[in-house]
């Protein structure tokens, strides 16, 4: 059942993104930024935590989950370290995911040869 919930929520995020690409003049970069900001806003309002608890990876893996993790890290760091936490909390909370993305991106770049578009 956990897989089904993750698939449904993650799929819904993808459907929304595809509709935004198809039906609006928003660029993919702006949609990605909107997803991250949406995760921050939904986390601040208190809606994203129950969604992440219910959907698991379907809510924590997409970009909205990244925004939620940033906001959560900042909130915890500010409570612990004060104002300095506002600068360090988001970086600390998301360091593992960012490091993995960089490492895997470099690994894939070494393993595969790019081909020109034709």
What does this structure look like?
The protein is mainly α. The chain has one domain (2-111). Helix content is 83%, strand content 0%. It is built from six helices and no strands. It has helices at residues 2-23, 28-45, 48-55, 57-60, 63-81, 85-111. It starts with a helix and ends in a 7-residue tail after the last helix. The model has no long low-confidence stretch (mean pLDDT 91).
Percent helix, as a range, is over 70%
Radius of gyration: 17 Å
Give the rounded overall mean pLDDT.
91
Q: Give the assembly state of these chains.
A: single chain
Number of domains: 1
Number of strands: 0
Dominant shape: globular
Order of helices and strands: HHHHHH
State the end-to-end distance. 43 Å
Stretches with pLDDT under 50, minimum 5 residues: none
Main sheet specs: none
SS strand fraction: under 5%
Q: Can I get a quick summary?
A:
With 118 residues, the protein is mostly helical.
Helix-strand blueprint:
Elements: H1 2-23, H2 28-45, H3 48-55, H4 57-60, H5 63-81, H6 85-111
Tags for this model:
118 residues; mainly alpha
